[in-house]
Amino acid sequence: MEAMWLLCVAAAVVAWGFLWVWDSSERVKSREQRGRLGAESRTLLAIAHPDDEAMFFAPTVLGLARLRHWVYLLCFSAGNYYNQGETRKKELLQSCDVLGIPLSRVMIIDSRDFPDDPGVQWDTEHVASVLLQHIEVNGINLVVTFDAGGVSGHSNHIALYAAVRALHSEGKLPKGCSVLTLQSVNVLRKYISLLDLPLSLLHTQDVLFVLNSKEVAQAKRAMSCHRSQLLWFRRLYILFSRYMRINSLSFL
User: Is the Cβ–Cβ distance between 140 and 42 less than 8 Å?
Assistant: First the structure.
């Protein structure tokens, strides 16, 4: 009985210490992010499919809202792999509304040039050209998209990284326009939810967004807008994925 009591006390102390470190780190990172990302910037979130914004980037979108960024969204396909394109476009608009992205700042490309198909490689130059056009037209000074791993390894996700990487390396982005990419993690880290927070605090290179309980509920509501995609395994994803709660990002 005494051993059990000591174990409970030890667990409480560890939990308190963890939360104190988290809170302190979050205050520091919040100050750093305000400095690095600025306030009231114009940010373009480039995604490949409807539901990417909620499934992968909700912490970033809601975190940028805290910094009063104007968030624009560019979706490169209608998600028509199973002939659900029209439905998925409507679901994306509903999700954006929940996440606080005005519909006037949402652009969905429905083109044969960018099919929703993991077996098709999108043309890097074409993707880069479309991206650059939207960056210039909207006066964007921050682009957010996937990293080289694409989070899930989907070729369409990786195509967006390849395009923005090309624009960056070739010096084609407007002066003052930065690029943030969402860090991919291994499968174990991907599905341990907030238990991944200590590793995220240790390994995040540039920007870390962590949602509070109210924001997590908001992210879940956004994902729930994608009713056509809510198969059993995606419901488990909503419960366990770190990407519904934590986003670690790196600058190019």
Answer: yes
